[in-house]
Amino acid sequence: MQTLPFPNHRPPEYLKLENEPEFSAARHLALEMPQAVTSLSELGYDAETIKACPSEFGVSSAFRILSDEGLAAMRDICLKMYDNRNVSVGTGVNRLGSYVRGAGYRSQFMKDFCDSPELAEHISKIASVKLARHSVPAVACGVNYAPEDITKAVDTWHVDSVAFDIVMMLSDPTKFEGGEFQYFHGTKMEGQKLLGIDGEEGKDTDLPADRVITVPFPTGGYGFMQQGNMIFHRACRMKHKAERITVIPSFVVAQADAADATNSVNMAGWDDPGLKAELARHEAWRASARLEALVDKISLHDEGEALSAQIDAALAPLLKFRDRIGGA
Questions:
Q1: Is the pTM of this model over 0.70?
Q2: Number of structural domains in the chain
């Protein structure tokens, strides 16, 4: 098993779509490689920081993901989900204007797209690490819409709570102004310091123009990939009301006992239905894999202090999450 399956039930707030097309990788995907990739070292990260990451991959140029048929089907599904958008606090009230989390609960087509082994294999090549659909359904299949209030940014400067994600445009980019996706050409620490923020909170202001890169989308069905917890990025304000829909699938390193950048402690503050239970499943899964790996790592020469440190390392993320949701 490469990742946790979706739970066998869904929160009642998420309305299931009916009469969807059946996802077919052969018909709905048209995967191409990006023309350019920027590494973490090119953004200024040092060797020690990069060593703690799953790979040196930073961010790519936009590449084709969906066929024309796939684009039409997914856009129609996202339009149908619009009236069942999330109403959330936490990150949502600070950053996002209009969005859907857990789209795989609502749409079987979206779930099968995000679960597609063809997609996972393709992006694993780009990132130089084996990836799988994220094990937290809320972030595994997300959709962002343009906000009703266009004085607000589509999404303010921030880093993500997961390591790897795709931002895929579904709307025709020639039919709206503004809403550009941009990232800071530097480390996230530099960007946060310039804006006077930390953590994953957002801020809607400008950074020095010569340090900001805009990622163009040739047309709908194209997306780019990023190591989102390391890339300081935003989606700008719209200049007029128009359709702007992006799909954001997220991914986790497939090796379950590998270092995991999923920020469950931060996401525990979001109020999406069922999210705390999703995060508990994720952290229990990863802790279980680390404990299983520990069985083979323990040496009979290890003494109490070394054994205690190994056990603490295996359980630390799970216990930190437990303390967060338990009010400790």
A1: yes
A2: 1
Answer for the pair 269, 90: CB distance below 8 angstroms, yes or no: yes
User: Is 13 part of a structural domain of the chain?
Assistant: no
Q: How far apart are CA 318 and CA 265, in angstroms?
A: 10
Q: Which candidate, 29, 35, 5, 246, places its Cα nearest to that of 118?
A: 29
Nearest-5° Cα angle at 103, 115 to 14: 130
How many Å apart are CA 181 and CA 184, to the nearest integer? 11
Which residues does residue 38 pair with via DSSP β-bridges, in sequence order? 59
**Residue 86 confidence (pLDDT):** 77
Confidence of residue 87 (pLDDT cuts 50, 70, 90): low
**Residue 310 domain flag:** no
- Helix H, strand E, coil C: the string for 58-108 is EEECCEECECHHHHHHHHHHHHHHHHHCCCCCCHHHHCCCEEECCHHHHCH
Instruction: Identify any residues that bridge with 182 across adjacent strands, giving them in sequence order.
Output: 214, 234
Domain extent at residue 65: 25-256
Which among 45, 114, 58, 53 is positioned nearest to 227, based on CA atoms? Answer: 58
Q: What is the mean pLDDT of residues 278-283?
A: 97
Other beta carbons within 10 angstroms of residue 18's beta carbon come to 7
CB 77, CB 17: distance < 8 Å: yes
HEC letters along 213-271: EEECCCCCCEEEEEECCCCCEEEEEECCCCCCEEEEEEEEECCCCCCCCCCHHHHCCCC
Q: Return d(Cα 278, Cα 102) in angstroms, integer.
A: 11
120 domain-assigned: yes
- CATH label of the domain that carries residue 186: 2.60.120.620
Amino acid at 96: L
Residue 96 has pLDDT above 60, yes or no: no
Q: Is residue 301 part of a domain?
A: no
Structure tokens at 236: 């700008």
